[in-house]
UniProtKB/TrEMBL annotation:
Enzyme Commission number(s): 5.3.1.1
Active site: H95 (electrophile), E165 (proton acceptor)
Descriptive protein name: Triosephosphate isomerase
Entry keywords, A to Z: Cytoplasm, Gluconeogenesis, Glycolysis, Isomerase
Pathway assigned to this chain's UniProt record: Carbohydrate metabolism; erythritol degradation; Carbohydrate degradation; glycolysis; D-glyceraldehyde 3-phosphate from glycerone phosphate: step 1/1; Carbohydrate biosynthesis; gluconeogenesis
Gene Ontology CC entries for this record: cytosol
Main location: cytoplasm
Entry function: Involved in the gluconeogenesis. Catalyzes stereospecifically the conversion of dihydroxyacetone phosphate (DHAP) to D-glyceraldehyde-3-phosphate (G3P).
Annotated InterPro entries: Aldolase_TIM, TIM_sf, TrioseP_Isoase_bac/euk, Triosephosphate_isomerase, Triosephosphate_isomerase_AS
Similarity comment: Belongs to the triosephosphate isomerase family.
Gene: tpiA
Amino acid sequence: MKPLIAGNWKMNGLLADATALAEDLKARAAAGGLACELLVCPPYPHIGPVADILSESGVQVGGQDCHNAGSGAHTGDISGAMLRDMGCSHVILGHSERRADHGENDAVVRAKAEAALAAGLIPIVCVGETAAERSAGQALAVIARQVKGSVPVGMAAERLVVAYEPVWAIGTGQTATPGDVAEAHTEIRRVLVGLVGEGAEQVRILYGGSVKPANARELMAQHNVGGALVGGASLKAEDFWAIATSCP
Ligand SMILES: O=C(CO)COP(=O)(O)O
């Protein structure tokens, strides 16, 4: 399977910024020849316009979260079906910012992943340890616990993406070393074998945390790294494109 380079735009920009970025990516994608799949995850209000611009471009569009219920009295939330209806193929779930800002735990993330799958979306389930957990020697145990708790059991491997995002590397400019990344991704793969069986080798495991054009090539070359989840650098088409063209 091709690597997946996903841009998480988080809560940034206004509509004009989102559409300008989408137009720029569409123009670059028209040349074709990328070795990876591309995905952008705009803030909710911008998904429709961005999906319209990118509809024929080959660049996919995703959400940054969805509710675990199909519909109902959940003020301010959105469902997987709504994302699908707007043209989304993927949804990021359990990002550490959601876990921290909204108290999401593994059980909630798993319920959301099940709802996303039921709506026809591919969930990108995020895991990753904090700086304190890493200094305490707990990084791999935390990652394993989060994967076991957050990934739906027995699902088809091609319908799942996992992202390893060490919390201390997000937005800090401090990237995990290629060795840390390889070790964490190997542990995630080991846990996935127990959850999805033989197909576990097919699950793409993305790395996220201060991925930039300057470090993307080395990170993407690590064993078990199937792409990147990019925050800040995905807001500049030139940088996002440079990362996309770093895929082996
Ligand atoms: O959280 C991230 C992507 O989901 C990573 O963010 P940065 O690339 O800005 O560190």
